[in-house]
Amino acid sequence: MKSIVKLLIPALAPLLALSASADPSVKPLKALLVIGGCCHDYAIQKDLLESGIEARANIDVEVCYSPDKTTKATFTCYDKADWAETYDVIIHDECSANVNDPVIVNRILDPHRKGKPAVNLHCAMHSYRTEPFFKTSLKTGDENAMWFDFLGLQSSGHGKQLPIDVIYLDPENPITKGLANWTTIKEELYNNIRVHDTAKPLARGKQGADETVVAWTNEYGAAKTRVFSTTLGHNNDTVSDARYLDLIIRGLLWSCDKLDKDGKPFAGYGPKAK
Q: Is-above-0.70 flag for pTM?
């Protein structure tokens, strides 16, 4: 009998874990994924992110996609002043470097200034450059530093695509607790012009002699809005990598205050029942 039990436990473990995390009485978090613009395969990545996020937590993802492949891509979901009202968290994955109208950028930032959690992926760090001299360090609170203040880190570019060694910095942080260091495929290592005082680095990326912060959290503005960001995620193989998606889902749940101190979702916010 003991030998039969030992054989059954591995087979039953996934079902037991799923039943523990699934709770139909808990309303799913509602996330808006804003994605599109220059230089990336967003037509594929929007589906990779939507399915990867929904498979890992009790979250419904709505996609706001622009097929515009230029650096001036805009998004219809931002048209209304109350554009973020019905969502629990916004995932920014735009590549809109030359959308620099302060009116537009302020409309995007306004819900976050009021406390709306956010996740920022890869080229979101190089979007909405209202400051023409974005390669020089900008002071917190400067009018044209507003997007960098939101991110908590200022970046201006990257070098050649090469593998990045991802090294987690804080083994006790709930976002990274238990996650193992890993190496990406050929990817872009974004530079760090300035890391803000309100930001907490979670991971560094090493690419040859270069090493920069590649994942961090930020407390944004007077509301101390929770913001999680990672500069990783240029290529489809990275976006679909379980190690990448696990990091993102931890950061997303943290931003919504649904992640416990051990890096586990709060009750009801784990993977959905199949």
A: yes
